[in-house]
Amino acid sequence: QVQLVESGGGLVQAGGSLRLSCAASGRTFSNYAMGWFRQAPGKEREFVARITWSGAVTNYADSVRGRFTISRDNAKNTVSLQMNSLKPEDTAVYYCAASQWDSGTYYGRPVAYNLWGQGTQVTVSS
Predict the structure, then answer these.
(1) Which CA distances in Å does 125 have to 47, 60, 84?
(2) How confident is residue 85, by pLDDT bands cut at 50, 70 and 90?
(3) CA 34 – CA 41 distance, rounded (Å)
(4) Tens of pLDDT along 17-28?
(5) Helix (H, G, I), strand (E, B), or coil: what is residue 89?
(6) CB of 63 within 8 A of CB of 35?
């Protein structure tokens, strides 16, 4: 079955950078919109970024816009999240997600995504 696997998380000081990657196994996900979400303990899963199936459109949460960049390489079935100028409030488990609907309306909602990775921990120290 199709699986998403995140990697690249770790510990970084405030102001530093990390690059997260998401690799898909199984069938190609080139027809899927892809998103990144994050969840801190005791908090709801939060939208971070999204990219359409073609890569033509990207969307970002206000909290990360200008600092994070989402990209995809459909030939390699990978999606990345470049995170710069990290802040302690960015600390969370980051999840890669795929949506077959590529919705321009609901991309910020977890329920719009039908496939999720296992998550990778990002910790930003002050």
Answers:
(1) 21, 23, 14
(2) very high
(3) 23
(4) 999 999 988 776
(5) helix
(6) no
